[in-house]
Every structure is written in C-alpha cells, then in structure tokens.
TrEMBL record:
Gene3D superfamilies: 3.40.190.290, Winged helix-like DNA-binding domain superfamily/Winged helix DNA-binding domain. Keywords: DNA-binding, Transcription, Transcription regulation. One of its GO terms (molecular function) is DNA-binding transcription factor activity. InterPro entries: LysR_HTH_N (IPR000847), LysR_subst-bd (IPR005119), WH-like_DNA-bd_sf (IPR036388), WH_DNA-bd_sf (IPR036390). This is LysR family transcriptional regulator. It comes from Brevibacterium epidermidis.
Length: 302
C-alpha cells in the first residue's frame, strides 16, 4: 500500500466513478482501475459495489475511507512540519470554515496578512462538518459550533444575529435600531435551515419565549436570504454583513442580544501551534475592529 494509491481510492470515493477519478488525478482510466483492484487485493477487502453507473462504498469501504483520509492528513502534516523545520517558517495553513465566515470576514482578514505569514488556504463546509476536517487536512477550523475539549481553541468573536429588514418596512419607522424577537414573529421570516448554528440559537429563543414564528422559507446561503429580504419576500435572519436594500437590526431576546460565538480551534500538538495561536488572536482583533456584528452581546435593548 502506498499514499498515492490511497489518494486514487479517495478520488473514486469523492467522484463516484473511475472515469471522473482518473480525470481528476490525471491518469488513464485503465490505470485507475488497476490501482483500485491492487488496493483491494492488498487489503483483502471489497471496497466498492456498483449501483447503476456509480461506485458506492461497502461497509468496510466506508470505514477504510475514514482511516485513509486520516493517514493522508497525517502524512501531509508531517511533510509540512518537515518543511517548516528546514526553512524555519510555516509556509501555509489550511483553514476550514463555513461559507458565511469565509465570505463575511476571512477573505478580508487574509488580505491583511503579509508574505511573512503563512498562506491561509480556505476550505468550506457546513457548520457541523467543520471539525472533522481536521482529520482530512485542515490545520485550523473557524466554526460557530462548540469544539471538542481535546482541541485548543480561542473565542474570536461574538457574532450578532441580524434581522434583515427591507427598505420602507414599518419596522424601520421612527429610526428603529433593534427589534425584539417577539415583534419579528408578527412578520414572514426567511431563516437558515436547522443544520446551522444560528438557526438552532433562533429556535432555542423561540422556545424560551413560547413564540410561533411565521417561517416563509429556509436558505443556508446568507446572500440569498438578504436578496429575498431586499426584494420584499420577508425579513431575513442571519449573521452576514448587510448588503442591498436592507437594514440589519440586532435581535433581542428579552434584554439580551441574539448572538453566537465564533471559535478558532486546532490540535494542541500541531507543529505550527504557536503560529496558529498568533493568527487566531489577530483574527479576534480584526473582527473586534471591523464590524458591529462582532461586538460583545451584552448591551440592553435600545
């Protein structure tokens, strides 16, 4: 067994066909098929079954794919650590985060780094799929979901959950600067799906106050939520900076703001732990300075 063969195997897992995997890995289809057959002989396992025109993992294949990703991540981490020892610097770090965080602040934060810093390579996933990416090549995660205790973590921001109110809406009369969750429930709402942390915070507050919201639609794309709000389809709920014809109002649950924490986390034994800690604190400072969405959620309702 060799690392390259594991990469071929995972390419088939991810693409679902030998043809697509061969194209992705830039080898001929017959060569890819031979690599998979060789791996199965080495392991004495059947890794795939055919369903229609796709290859689907067997139960053994699913378990082995998890181990293969961990092996490759370990090898890549070792290679990066060795390079760091040779050069005396960390060349790059892979950051796993949500699309909202990547688009909402991380790209702008990366723009503040210099050539003396590690190059930050971003990969995105759903909220609750971020932490497992530490087992598949990510050096650092930035997540609104609480992280495991064995990870080293830094709270880098307290993100406000906004109501995106379209221009001309009655909620904006008389210079409204915030809105109570109970008041929001008088209107049609566009909310994230239950797979997001902000939705779970929203639902918990709804239950706490025994409210009955009118949910018109669900979307996990923050820009789409804001777009739907701008066009008058409802009041959107989210954490992204506002854009278009909307006003972002902080949401209050009783006398506290609705918000969620944003964490940076990594394995404490990571070879670049010191560099990651420095970047995490710099991201914390960046967020504290740039936007009201990252302010402490300790204010009272205006």
């Amino acid at each position: 067994m060799n690392i390259r063969r594991l990469e071929y195997f995972l390419s088939v897992v991810d693409t679902g066909t030998v043809t697509h995997a061969a194209a992705q890995m830039h080898i001929a289809q017959p060569a890819m098929s031979r690599q998979i057959r060789t791996l199965e002989r080495e392991l004495k396992l059947n890794l795939f079954v055919t369903e229609g025109n796709r290859l689907v993992l067997t139960a053994a294949g699913r378990q082995f794919s998890t181990m293969a990703r961990e092996v490759i991540a370990t090898v890549r981490g070792t290679e990066h650590a060795a390079a760091s020892l040779r050069t005396g610097r960390v060349e790059s770090l892979t950051v796993a985060t949500t699309v909202a965080s990547a688009r909402g602040f991380l790209a702008d934060f990366i723009a503040t780094t210099t050539t003396e810093d590690p190059a930050l390579i971003v990969r995105t996933a759903d909220h609750y799929a971020i932490e497992p990416m530490l087992d598949s090549g990510a050096d650092l995660i930035i997540s609104p979901a609480p992280t495991s205790r064995h990870l080293r973590s830094v709270d880098i921001a307290d993100l406000q959950v906004f109501a995106y109110v379209p221009d001309g809406h009655e909620l904006l009369d008389a210079g409204t600067e915030a809105v109570g969750l109970d008041r929001l429930c008088d209107f049609s709402l566009i909310v994230p799906s239950a797979s997001s942390v902000s939705r779970r915070q929203f639902d918990a507050a709804i239950v706490e106050l025994e409210l009955e919201p009118h949910i018109r639609a669900e979307s996990d794309d923050g820009a789409s939520v804001i777009g739907l709000s701008s066009s008058g389809h409802g009041i959107g709920i989210g954490t992204e900076p506002p854009q278009g014809a909307v006003t972002a109002l902080p949401i209050f649950v009783g006398d506290r703001r609705l918000s969620l924490r944003l964490f940076a986390a990594w394995r404490p034994e990571h070879f670049a732990s010191a560099a990651i800690l420095d970047l995490a604190h710099r991201a914390e400072d960046f967020l504290a300075q740039r936007a009201p969405s990252a302010e402490p959620a300790t204010d009272s309702m205006p």
